[in-house]
Amino acid sequence: MDANNKHELKQGLSNRHIQLIALGGAIGTGLFLGLSQTIKLAGPSILLGYAIAGIIAFLIMRHLGEMVVEEPVSGSFSYFANKYWGKMAGFMSGWNYWVLYVLVSMAELSAIGTFIQFWWPEIPTWLTALFFFILINGINLVNVRFFGESEFLFSCIKIVAILSMIGFGAYLLLSGSAGPQAGVANLWQHGGFFP
């Protein structure tokens, strides 16, 4: 390869792709699958837990955003760990990030299998996970524009699903067709705020 060849990156994602990828990435299977078990175990106090975790995540992202604005570099946050805390911190944060996303990806594939088994119990979870693993990797390997359009579509589906659930819940609360109305007192009745 000639040392004089310049490789320039081509922008394949538009602003709408990036915004919906960020929004869709924040909405995971935890909202649809994991939240029910958490509410069952922790009760209404989960609101307090989510508020604390949300504030901490907001502050961390705010600090990271300040660092990126001050020093825009190509790379992830492990660059800053390497620069300010040393090579070992950069190395560990980079590998921890990689391991995190490998584990999260496998959890997401297992969750897809759980959702599919709800409607089609005869399909094994591993087969669904394998199918979607191949599909997701195929989308990632085609080109960045196709990936952006796919992520845009999937994020729109998630957002429409959430808005539909909120709308249906509001309908049930306002119409009275859901039975006895739940009030704010349910936050401390039936076992208390911290059951």
TrEMBL record:
InterPro entries in UniProt: AA-permease/SLC12A_dom (IPR004841), Amino_acid_permease_CS (IPR004840)
Domain Amino acid permease/ SLC12A: 17-194
Transmembrane helix as UniProt keyword: yes
Transport listed as a keyword: yes
Sorted UniProt keywords: Amino-acid transport, Cell inner membrane, Cell membrane, Membrane, Transmembrane, Transmembrane helix, Transport
GO terms, biological process: amino acid transport; transmembrane transport
Listed transmembrane segments: 20-39, 45-61, 97-120, 126-144, 156-174
Places the protein is found: Cell inner membrane
Record membrane topology: Multi-pass membrane protein
GO cellular component labels: plasma membrane
Top-rank taxon, per record: Bacteria
Gene3D superfamilies per the UniProt record, alphabetical: Amino acid/polyamine transporter I
PANTHER family in UniProt: AROMATIC AMINO ACID TRANSPORT PROTEIN AROP (PTHR43495:SF4), GABA PERMEASE (PTHR43495)
Family that this chain belongs to: Belongs to the amino acid-polyamine-organocation (APC) superfamily. Amino acid transporter (AAT) (TC 2.A.3.1) family.
Entry protein name: Amino acid permease family protein
